[in-house]
Amino acid sequence: MLDQLSGTAINDDGAWIYPDALGSRNAALVAWWYGGVLQNLDFITLAEGNRPEAVQEQLNQMAWAGEMEGWLKSPPHWHLVASGSTASEWETSLRAALDQPVQVLEPLPPPQLAAATARRATRASPNANLLPAEFAERYRQQFVDRLWMRGLLAVGALYLLYVIGYGGVLGFTMFQASGAESARDKISNDYTNTMQLKATYGVLKEREDLKFAALDSWKAIAELMPETLSLDTWNFGDGKRLVLSGSAASSEHRQEILDFEKAVRKYKDPKTLEPLFDANKGEGLNLRMGRMAQFCGISRSNLNARRYNERLLE
Fold first, then answer.
1. Using N-to-C axis directions, what is the helix angle for 84-98 and 51-69, rounded to 10°?
2. Domain made up of 208-313: CATH architecture
3. Which is the most buried residue in 96, 160, 166, 216, by most CB within 10 A?
4. CB 7 within 8 A of CB 1
């Protein structure tokens, strides 16, 4: 509305009426220009009933105020800045209320009004203020001081909370450490006894594994040895080395000895189907020919600890 007011060309003394003020078609802004100076701004409204009389009364009150202030020195000329149906409605009411001619002027079109608003916004100082500069500076300094004080108070409160939290955590940690030391003292004897039992169990378990390994080896030899061969000695040393020594009735059984040696190396446990001996280790077969064919077979057994542990649990 102010941009519309400043964009209107003023060529004589009088009142310029701008409808659609205050966001309503029934309200209008009245600008009084005298001597090329904007003397007064006020609003008038159209009543629902008896519109001419209400408009006349409002305008007469403004004119009387101008006469008392001394700037209204001649009868005003009336100007209506509106267009379309708004101009027709207000012109009719004004002519009936004033009984004087009313000059109708076209308002600034929306594009020109927007351009005027943009120019005013760019020219306006962003620091325009009715507050004195010394008051603004004082208020600004007080605001900065409050920020500093609040910041210091916040830092102090945070530090205090940190100290309290640190003390609480330290006390709780020391309490836990004291409890752990007490528990350690209580279970030290139990720990020593447990380690002794564990060592004893390891020795017994190893003896049990060796016993089952010897029995499995003996079982394999008993199953695989032909009737034409005889076993003279059988030595199972260190749980890893099996030494066999035997004889045959004659040298004609040489092939049976060789087949027996191969069968022993390839023997698999019936339960686990894993090789009982390592076929790639151990010394080979040693044959000595005499009145009776003698053989001495040496091989290394492949003991599977997991398999013997399972058998021990059974």
1. 70
2. 2-Layer Sandwich (3.30)
3. 216
4. no
How far, in Å, CA of 215 to CA of 238, rounded?
A: 14
Q: Tell me how far apart the alpha carbons of residues 53 and 50 are, in angstroms, rounded to a whole number.
A: 6
Give the 3-state DSSP-derived string for 248-262, with helices as H, strands as E and coil as C: ECCHHHHHHHHHHHH
Residue with tokens 């608003």: 117
Q: How many CB atoms lie within 10 A of CB 188?
A: 10
**Measured between alpha carbons, how far is 34 from 12 in angstroms, rounded to an integer?**
8
Structure tokens given for 143:
């605001």
Is the pTM value of this prediction over 0.85? no
Give strand pairing partners of 28: 19, 44
Give the DSSP H or E segment for 30.
strand 27-34
The pLDDT tens digits for 256-275 are 777 777 777 777 777 777 77
* Closest-CA residue to 290 (of 255, 247, 259, 258): 247
The pLDDT of residue 303 is 43
Tokens of 124: 């306006």
Reading the block at residue 237, the tokens are 């040393």
Hunting for tokens 């009737």 — which residue is that?
A: 227
Measured CA to CA in angstroms, residue 211 lies from 15, 65, 104, 173, 201 at distances of 128, 130, 127, 52, 15
Q: At what angle are helices 133-224 and 305-313 packed, to 10 degrees?
A: 80
Tokens 């005499």 belong to 290
The backbone torsions φ and ψ at residue 220, rounded to the nearest 5 degrees and listed phi first, read -65, -45
Q: If one looks up domain 2-123 in CATH, what number appears?
A: 3.30.420.40
Amino acid at site 58: Q
Q: Which of 126-130, 151-155, 178-182 has the lowest mean pLDDT?
A: 126-130
Retrieve residue 125's tokens: 């100082």
Alpha carbons 197 and 153: distance in angstroms, whole number: 63
Residues 206, 239: Cα–Cα separation, whole Å? 9
